[in-house]
Design a protein that fits this description.
The chain is α+β, with helices and mostly antiparallel strands. The protein has two domains: about 210 residues, 3-Layer(aba) Sandwich (Beta-lactamase), CATH 3.40.710.10; about 140 residues, Beta-lactamase (3-Layer(aba) Sandwich). Strands 1, 2, 3, 4, 13, 14, 15, 16 and 17 form a nine-stranded antiparallel beta sheet that branches. Strands 5-10 form a two-stranded antiparallel sheet. Strand 11 and strand 12 form a beta hairpin. Helix 4 crosses helix 9. The longest helix is centred in the first third of the chain and has 17 residues. The N and C termini lie far apart (about 45 Å). The N terminus is likely disordered.
Length: about 425
């Protein structure tokens, strides 16, 4: 990993100092102007540098905002190792599951309009989701994987043994938003969704594929536990948005969320060739170091709109989304949601006592919610909410400290998100009300 040690020095830019223009602008401030210690804030940079030097990932972009002003925006390392291209502050990242809160906001907008209800059965919009079955494991060897994209990727090597029983109730919009539906969220359901006659085919849309999931048994009785539906749950919500709104989801998101927030660099697919050089290369770690991932995920087929993980964006663009949530649903005079609706989104719908949730961290509508910072062992305030992406992206909104922070890499790194949270929060040295 010695060759990685010079990556950080290749590109270390702080927009607080140089004021590089970006497509979606937020006001800038020196750290002290928003109650943050500039000296302590260096620990964010040092944390990422250590990981880059160790070969955890090739490069990163980090952003910290307080009181609606950017105190830190920094690119470190490389976008691509082969070409030695420096990481850029406006680099584009595959944010994977950080797509989910965007879908959550879209659903909440439709709830405000009376087109969707939180407790609606999903079958109201997708009839094939009525009369679902639940898989019950039998004793004996079980195969099948719990991989994030098992339902749309290769079929598992060995099928688990199970039988089915009727679902005690229909799954609801709330179940999908909170990962309590059991839809493609464990060994049995992933195995069944991975069968050739079910899984996503080339150039299929959500409307083509999602109804087939109605024939896949749920992993457990709806609402009985929390288990992450890595793709299927929010892919299904995309189709709900399309049915309820009469628009394709990418058009809805563009007109109703991205354009009002000035998120000009956020998209599912684009024919604009100017975007391609800005896409950070994705890497996996191996015994020989970082290995470039040449192919995009199978669901990035140019037609399917994955609510579970399909968006590309920049740190600065995603900040606009986070600031909108921090500000109670509006930003720069554009209101997307009512304050009460954002409060509902970040409320703890799923307690940390439900099987599947870690202590100190409940779940809201498409976001984790810190309900007990002590139990979670974090420097984040109770009430902080946000989510992460499988390829190494992370964001959180801390309403108590008026902070939004974004971390972007393209390699999953265990422990990094929590360390980033702590590095950001330890830099705050003055109460928010003083600024």
């Amino acid at each position: 990993m010695r060759s990685m040690k010079k990556l950080t020095t290749t590109c270390m830019l702080s927009l607080v100092l140089i004021g590089l223009p970006l497509s979606a602008q937020a006001p800038r401030s020196n750290p002290e102007g928003v109650g943050i210690s500039a000296e302590r804030l260096k620990r964010v940079s040092e944390l990422l540098k250590r990981h880059i030097d160790a070969g955890s990932f090739s490069g990163s972009v980090t952003l910290v905002s307080r009181n609606g002003r950017v105190a830190h925006l920094e690119a470190q390392g490389l976008m691509d190792i082969d070409t030695r291209k420096p990481m850029a502050p406006n680099a584009l990242f595959r944010i994977m599951s950080m797509t989910k809160p965007v879908v959550g906001v879209a659903i909440l907008m439709l709830i405000e309009e009376g087109k969707v209800r939180l407790n609606d059965p999903v079958s109201r919009f997708i009839p094939q989701f009525k009369d679902l079955k639940v898989g019950v494991a039998q004793s004996g060897p079980a195969g099948g994987g719990g991989g994030a994209a098992a339902g749309r990727g290769a079929a598992p090597a060995a099928a688990p043994r199970f039988y089915t029983v009727p679902a005690e109730r229909e799954i609801t919009i709330r179940d999908l938003l909170t990962h309590t539906s059991g839809l493609v969220s464990g060994t049995i359901s992933n195995s069944e969704a991975g069968k050739p006659d079910v899984r996503l085919k080339a150039k299929e849309s959500n409307a083509d594929y999602i109804p087939r999931l109605g024939g896949v048994p749920l992993e457990f009785q709806p609402g009985s536990r929390w288990a992450y539906s890595a793709q299927a749950g929010f892919d299904t919500l995309v189709l709900v948005v399309e049915v309820a709104s009469g628009q394709k989801f990418d058009q809805f998101a563009r007109q109703r969320i991205f354009e009002p927030l000035g998120m000009k660099d956020t998209y599912f697919y684009t024919s604009d060739e100017s975007f391609k050089p800005r896409i950070a290369t994705r890497y996996n770690r191996s015994e020989k170091g970082l290995v470039k991932v040449m192919n995009e995920a199978n669901f990035m087929n140019g037609v399917f709109l994955s609510g579970g993980g399909g968006l590309f964006t920049t740190a600065e663009d995603y900040l606009q989304f986070g600031l909108m949530l921090l500000n109670g649903g509006q930003l720069n005079g554009k209101r997307l949601l009512a304050p009460r609706t954002v409060e509902l989104m970040r409320s703890m719908h799923i307690p940390d006592t439900l099987p599947g949730r870690p202590r100190g961290e409940g779940y809201g509508l498409s976001v984790r919610v810190v309900n007990d910072a002590v139990q979670r062992g974090t420097l984040l305030s109770s009430g902080t909410f946000g989510w992460s992406g499988a390829y190494g992206t992370h964001f959180f909104v801390d309403p108590k400290e008026n902070v939004v922070a974004v971390l972007m890499t393209q390699t999953s790194t265990p422990g990094l998100n929590a360390d980033f949270e702590n590095a950001v929060m330890q830099s705050i040295v003055e109460p928010v009300e003083l600024h």
